[in-house]
């Protein structure tokens, strides 16, 4: 039987590999990271970086884009193609700041993008965010391994119990003593068939231990020998009854998680059911604590650490799902891409802490405009935000954009260095499409990005909708 102590230990010391052909950049970043208690490795070109990764896999890589021979994009592709290194988070660093370079960086496997000259707070914040996500992923993977171990242990217990089926009825007193002391909920049920058709209409409880009775909020004696199973199980999931019938008819075991509100608390359980004569035996385990931790870790991995809204990774997942759904239903899908006007000047004048507070306020103001549960706002990168509006045409998206700009003007964040307004303002690109097999989510993003660029060229502080 596998034990949780057999799992590999996780290394808690963060090692960062800096890859840059500019020695000055290497020194600046190395000093910054060492002063913040990171272990630093350095490489002056792509070839050296690949060799360094083979000898000691780092926790994160800061990768320059423009380098001789192998550039950053090629190095990233090679790392992502190697199973040993494909999970290492890579943050690109470059003086380039065009949208095309950012898109390409994410396409080859980068998870973030930092531009030169470096802002120390930004570099540290982005590194800390990605290391936190990696740590959370490792914790989640450990939980999954533990779940598999427990499932294997449960299956082993079931196999042992099946070997005792032959003496179950002969030694009921002994078996009942064992079952009642188990830490799992256990029950044995026999099929009740229609005498004319032979179909299973109900299950009679032959054996129920106290934990099962507690789940159903009943006394044990009120369940044994009674035809109450169907009524109780339909409160949890109406489809489960037919699933148990299938176990008896086919002999194929069933393992499944289910949720159930017990004593005003939402609980999660995992069960394994196996055929037992003309019926089945079931083992139920409370997995509420593990499930809550798993849900919390999944939530943390989908939000932006600064603004509290969705991050770019979950946006990429949701836009793909909504694209496929709108394509099936032939419904429009709209997208608003916007950023803050002259935000670099804002940061330079007011400081990065004020800049962070500004991003938080703008994100919350925009989020409050969205009323439908399936509308999504996410941080796209830096001061850029993206809003996804399923089942919304261009006219509706333009209205939402106008309401968001009004909401941002209402909070009136001063911006003395702006060249278009005395308060923080935004430039927005709006695009709408009915998805089809001839285009993709990237084409919708490109449309919004194109008119966003036009809006900046025309003076900023405006929203422009894409026209083919």
Question: Could you walk me through the main structural features you see in this protein, from its secondary elements to its overall organization?
Answer:
- It is built from 15 helices and 15 strands.
- By secondary structure, it is of the alpha/beta class.
- The model is unreliable at about 1-10 (pLDDT under 50).
- The chain has 3 domains: about 15-120, 3-Layer(aba) Sandwich (Rossmann fold), CATH 3.40.50; about 155-290, Beta-Lactamase, CATH 3.30.450.20; about 300-465, Reverse transcriptase/Diguanylate cyclase domain (Alpha-Beta Plaits).
- The protein has helices at about 25-35, 45-55, 70-80, 100-105, 120-165, 170-180, 210-215, 230-235, 240-250, 290-300, 310-330, 345-350, 350-370, 395-410, 440-455, and strands at about 15-20, 40-45, 60-65, 90-95, 110-115, 185-195, 200-210, 255-260, 265-275, 280-285, 335-340, 375-380, 385-390, 425-435, 465.
- The N and C termini lie far apart (about 65 Å).
- Strand 14 (about 425-435), helix 15 and strand 15 form a beta-alpha-beta unit.
- It has a 5-stranded parallel sheet, with helices on both faces. A 5-stranded antiparallel sheet has the order 7-6-10-9-8, sandwiched between helices.
- The longest helix is centred in the N-terminal third of the chain and has 44 residues, at about 120-165.
Supply database-style keywords:
Rossmann fold; Alpha-Beta Plaits; 5-stranded antiparallel beta sheet; 5-stranded parallel beta sheet; alpha/beta; disordered N terminus; 22% strand
Give a brief outline of the structure.
The protein has 468 residues and is α/β, with parallel strands linked by helices. The chain has 15 helices and 15 strands.
């Amino acid at each position: 039987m596998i034990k949780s102590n057999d799992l590999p230990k996780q290394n808690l010391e963060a090692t960062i590999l800096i890859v840059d052909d500019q020695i000055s950049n290497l020194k600046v970043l190395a000093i910054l990271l060492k002063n913040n208690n990171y272990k630093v490795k350095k490489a002056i070109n792509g070839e050296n970086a690949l060799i360094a990764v083979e000898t000691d896999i780092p926790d994160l890589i800061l990768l320059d884009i423009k380098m001789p021979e192998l550039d950053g994009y090629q190095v990233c592709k090679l790392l992502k193609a190697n199973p040993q290194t494909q999970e290492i988070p890579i943050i690109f660093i470059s003086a380039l700041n065009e949208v095309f370079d950012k898109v390409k960086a994410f396409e080859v496997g980068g998870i973030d993008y930092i531009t030169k000259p470096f802002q120390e707070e930004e570099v540290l914040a982005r590194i800390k965010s990605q290391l936190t996500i990696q740590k959370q992923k490792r914790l989640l993977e450990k939980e999954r391994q533990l779940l598999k171990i427990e499932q294997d242990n449960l299956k082993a217990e079931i196999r042992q119990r099946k070997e005792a089926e032959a003496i179950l009825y002969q030694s009921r007193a002994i078996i009942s003593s064992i079952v009642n002391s188990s830490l799992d909920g256990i029950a044995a049920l026999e099929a009740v068939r229609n005498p004319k058709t032979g179909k299973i209409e109900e299950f009679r409880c032959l054996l129920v231990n106290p934990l099962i009775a507690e789940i159903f909020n009943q006394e044990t004696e009120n369940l044994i020998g009674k035809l109450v199973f169907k009524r109780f199980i339909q409160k949890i999931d109406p489809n489960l009854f037919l699933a148990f019938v299938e176990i008896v008819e086919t002999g194929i075991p069933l393992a499944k998680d289910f949720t159930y509100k017990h004593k005003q608390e939402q609980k999660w359980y995992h069960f394994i059911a196996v055929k037992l004569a003309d019926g089945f035996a079931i083992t139920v385990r409370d997995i509420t604590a593990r499930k809550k931790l798993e849900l919390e870790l999944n939530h943390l991995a989908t939000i932006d650490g600064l603004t509290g809204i969705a991050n770019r990774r979950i946006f990429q997942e949701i836009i793909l799902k909504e694209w496929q759904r709108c394509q099936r239903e032939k419904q429009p899908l709209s997208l608003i891409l916007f950023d803050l006007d002259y935000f670099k000047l804002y940061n330079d004048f007011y400081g990065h802490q004020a800049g962070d507070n500004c991003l938080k306020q703008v994100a919350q103001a925009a989020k409050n405009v969205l009323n439908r549960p399936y509308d999504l706002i996410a941080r796209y990168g830096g001061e850029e935000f993206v809003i996804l509006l399923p089942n919304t045409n261009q006219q509706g998206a333009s209205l939402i954009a106008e309401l968001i700009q009004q909401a941002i003007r209402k909070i009136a964040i001063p911006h003395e260095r702006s060249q278009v307004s005395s308060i923080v303002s935004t430039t927005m690109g709006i695009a709408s499409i009915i998805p089809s097999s001839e285009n993709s989510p990237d084409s919708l993003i490109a449309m919004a990005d194109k008119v966003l660029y036009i809006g900046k060229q025309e003076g900023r502080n405006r929203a422009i909708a894409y026209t083919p």
